[in-house]
Amino acid sequence: MFKSFSHIYIEDGIRDHWRTKEILKRFPNAIPIPIRHYKDSFNRNSQNFRVQKETPKLILAEKKEHFLYPGSDFSPNFSHPHFYYNTIALNCIYDCEYCYLQGMFPSANLVLFVNWEDFFDATKEFIEKNQSLYLALSYDTDLLALESFFPATKAWLEFAATEPRLSLEIRTKSTNYSQIAKFSPNPNVILAWTISPQAIIETIEHGTPPLHTRIKVINQAIQDGWKVRICIDPILRVPNWKTHYQSLADTLGKELKIDGLVDISIGGFRMNIDFLKRMMDVRKDSSILFHAFEKKDKIVSYSNLETEEILELMSSALHQYVSPSEIKVSYT
Amino acid sequence: MSALFFAVLSEAKPWITKLQAKPISHLGKFRIFQKEDHYIIISGTGKLSAALAVSEFAHILPKPDRNQMKIWNLGIAGSNNNELSLGDFFWIHKITDAATKRDFYPDRIEKSKFTKETTLTTFDRPITKNENSDRFLFLPQEELKGIQLIDMEGSGFFEAASLYFPLENISLGKLVSDHLEGTFCKAETVESMMAEKMEGLFDEWTSPLPWTGIDSIETFDWPLVEAFIQNLRLTETMKHDLKKSIRFFRLRNPNTILPFPEESLKIHLKSKSDLKEFFEQWRESLHV
């Protein structure tokens, strides 16, 4: 099979964009394929997400509308009145078995929008109108993980430095902190790392960095003065889950600079039912998707009892090291 | 399993000979040659013929076979690009239908000994860039700008194939046969060009797709469950949920015997509620 990004689809309209050229320089051996609109390739019927994930291609495109979306009900809004996200990239280089993207998108190929200035303009306009904005920047992707060839996180940090009414959350599993380490910490930016027990990283979060390296860069970010959030979300009921998550809390208590954290966000597995149905079709080898979930409205999740058990165990385990006020439940 | 579509016999001949394929007897219009799990189909020229041939072939196969099948279209193509040499072979990553302006994007997933790729434009008539040819459609340079390879089947083949076969199983490859001089290639020339490239391509065509395989739950576990539940009058929803539970159990316990309720309990199932309780208990035993 071809290795990742062997082919790059390029919208005709941004073929000569300087950012397109910069990205192409990073992949000198990739085969360029001209396309009229990214959806002609990305939204085709009957694509095989699993096969494409083995050899993902890049799609370079221009986002023409919808530069801000209201935050999902599945995500914590951290009590902010204007909680939005944007989609400067679609899809992720990692391959987590629980990831909703595989139920949401028809393709596993990675779409990168190169017209960042339009995102900045739309964000400025929103802030002028509403006076504040809490923006989740890395939502349908893991932006920091792409930083070596798509340095959008740096650009947003520069932008945030000029917009004091903008609060950013940059969520990641990557250890690419060094890419942004030279920036002065911005009190309006939260760097949020999703972490899991090492056993889950190895068996379910395919391609993601190990726990100890994530902890190492988190500590570095805290030491540098960044606001850091830890997300233990989703908590999964895998075999021996209690042992794994207790052990994770103990590891954090021993190895993480807990005092420097903004908060720890915890939540059980939950999903839009249509996404889960599609995921079960494409990923028949993942037991976590075939749990006997409860359905309520259009949402599937662990049962109330199971969710309570998860949150209780995780909270109790963390309380040994963290004050209760620092633990936020992202979804019940 | 693999299938290979050609427009004309001269393109197919080296492959039929190498495969030692024999014509199959069937009621359809198109010539289909077979050796074991491999098929060669001659569609005739033009995108309509190509699409009809794909459709006819698809209908002689059950869907599970189609899902496991590698499906290729190979053939000759004219080139507007003089830098492309006669006999060069290209995989196609984009097809444009000149009549409808629609674009199609075959996924490039498997690596090949032949590394060159380009775009293909499918026209309804043979094209020439020389004005004095009455059997070809003359197109001036400005209309040919940006066009690499030209054929008469690609878009029809791909559009039809993507209706019946998984997208990722479909590939097109074209040999440069001319530079649009307005003359038809001789059959012997086409045959020898194709024979030369076939030596490198044959093993790639006959090797199984790396992403197809058997689903052990569908193949081994579910038939046992179906046999057990055949007299139970489960609803389709219950069967669907049961299958999910069976999958959960098997993925969590790959080497354990599947738990079944006691066979004798079946005779005590007098009402719907008895059945429901029996069913729920069984599912609970699978979610351990």
Describe this structure in words.
In chain A, 33% of the residues lie in helices and 23% in strands. Chain A is of the alpha/beta class and 332 residues long. In chain A, the strands form four sheets. Chain A has an eight-stranded mixed β-sheet with strand order 4-5-9-10-11-13-14-18, with helices on one face. In chain A, strands 2-1-3-8-6 form a five-stranded mixed β-sheet. In chain A, strands 15-17-16 form a three-stranded antiparallel β-sheet. In chain A, strand 1, helix 1 (18-26) and strand 2 (31-35) form a beta-alpha-beta unit. The termini of chain A are far apart. Chain B is α/β, with parallel strands linked by helices. In chain B, 38% of the residues lie in helices and 21% in strands. Chain B has nine helices and twelve strands. In chain B, the strands form two sheets. A five-stranded mixed β-barrel of chain B has the order 5-11-8-6-12. A two-stranded parallel ribbon of chain B has the order 9-10. The longest helix of chain B is centred in the C-terminal third of the chain and has 20 residues, at 187-206. The two termini of chain B are 39 Å apart. The model of chain B has no long low-confidence stretch (mean pLDDT 95).
